[in-house]
Specification:
Blueprint: H1 8-16, E1 19-23, H2 26-34, E2 40-45, H3 54-68, E3 72-77, H4 81-84, H5 99-105, H6 109-113, E4 126-129, H7 131-134, H8 139-146, H9 151-155, H10 158-165, H11 172-188, E5 192-196, H12 200-214, E6 219-223, H13 248-256, H14 263-270, H15 275-286, H16 291-307, H17 309-324, E7 334-335, E8 341-342, H18 343-349, H19 356-364, E9 368-370, E10 373-374, E11 381-382, E12 387-390, E13 394-398
Length: 399
């Protein structure tokens, strides 16, 4: 067993840096950490997509801090819970995934986690799947589990209240999700759980079950979410989700597309800068310094963290060349075309747009260029040799 560190500075950083809340309290968890006993801490991810994203890695950074202190860490893949669907922040019932879809989605998760977490060495992290216990529960087990909660407790969830007010359905299986996530803590007999503050309800369900079933206190640390000034999380629908499968150039470009209001939260959540250093950046921008300077620094730091220093330097150079000097990239993806084809079809077949309706919308809003000229006619055609550009970063050449 590795030696557990009780370094006060490290513990203070773990409990304060970009933390939203600590349950039962920071003082109680600090006492646990300073006792020198190895604790078991976990972070769970439902594989709803094929790539981890920046939000996951903000949480993984906190997990790594516990690992560095010598505590046991578990990375839990919610291969069972993903088939049910977490209702968190959803205005409608989440689409349920098949077993095959879930397993395909998480195929590369461990490889991506390994950019932050150590899976080898004297204090190697453990990877677990919650189907190992949830998939074996009987209906009697589920009834017993449900007896620890009330309908009133479930209805306290904001998204359920909102749906009921709007006359939208709330399905019974959605009530079961926090019970299942809560039971994960019992099955693994953990001391603590880490997650985004949007997971507070689910994580506290685990606290309830640990007390009821095992008579044990479980701590919960919720991390601040990276959001835009309106409070909206990054995501696929917003087009700003920074995925680990993105190229370093796309990672850099996505950070550069963030609003200025996301710069300070970005430094606070995605870097190791102290609170004082982040406050100095905020003060400098308030006094009129160009936010672009700080955004470039932030983008480079994030890409270096996720892909390495060399990739970050190359991505920064690429951004300057393509976006600030308005040059095309040296290597442009190619799409085979037989004679003339519609611009809409070219955008969809090259995967620059997700659908024909998306392509038409991008064209009509002036977001598409052909050979450096903006095209707003959705009926336009293109031919071999044409270079199509969508937005600032995406190109394809017809060959």
């Amino acid at each position: 067993m590795p030696k557990v560190s009780t370094d006060k500075n490290q513990i203070d950083w773990v409990l304060n840096h970009a933390v939203e809340n600590v349950y039962p309290s920071k003082a109680e968890v600090k006492k646990m950490l300073e006792a020198g006993k190895q604790l078991t801490v976990y972070f769970g991810i439902d594989p709803t997509g094929p790539s981890l994203h920046l939000g996951h890695f903000i949480n993984l950074r906190r997990v790594k801090l516990f690992q560095d202190l010598g505590h046991k860490v578990i990375l839990l893949i919610g291969d069972f819970t993903a088939m049910i669907g977490d209702p968190t922040d959803k205005g409608a019932t989440r689409k349920q995934l098949t077993r095959e879809e879930v397993l395909a989605n998480c195929k590369l998760y461990k490889e991506q986690m390994a950019r932050v977490i150590d899976f080898t060495g004297p204090n190697a992290a453990e990877l677990k799947f919650n189907s190992a216990w949830l998939g074996k529960m009987t209906f009697a087990d589920v009834i017993q589990l449900a007896s620890h909660f009330t309908v009133q407790q479930m209805l306290e969830r904001d998204m359920f209240e909102k749906r009921i007010e709007e006359g939208k359905p709330v399905h019974v299986h959605e009530f079961m999700y926090p019970l299942m996530q809560g039971y994960d803590s019992v099955a693994m007999d953990v001391d603590g759980e880490i997650g985004g503050n949007d997971q507070t309800f689910n994580m506290l369900a685990g606290r309830t079950l640990m007390k009821d079933v095992k008579g044990k206190e479980k701590f919960v640390i919720t991390n601040t979410l990276l959001t835009d000034p309106t409070g909206k999380k990054m995501g696929k629908s917003e087009g700003n989700m920074l995925a680990l499968t993105d190229s370093p150039e796309d990672m850099y470009g996505k950070v550069m597309s963030w609003t200025d209001g996301m710069i300070v939260p970005g430094f606070r959540l995605c870097t190791d800068l102290s609170d004082d250093e982040v406050k100095n950046i905020e003060t400098a921008m308030n006094k009129g310094e160009n936010p672009m300077t700080f955004k470039r620094d932030l983008a480079k730091r994030i890409v270096a963290w996720l892909a390495g220093d060399e990739a970050a330097a190359s991505a920064a150079e690429h951004f300057t060349t393509v976006h600030q000097e308005h040059a095309r990239p040296d290597e442009i993806p190619e799409l085979k075309a037989k004679g003339n084809m519609s611009l809409v079809d070219a955008l969809v077949e090259s995967e620059l747009c997700s659908s024909k309706s998306d392509a038409r919308r991008q064209i009509e809003q002036g977001g598409v260029k052909v050979d450096d000229e903006v095209v707003k006619d959705a009926a336009a055609t293109v031919s071999k040799g044409s270079v199509i550009q969508k937005g600032k970063r995406h190109f394809v050449k017809l060959v």
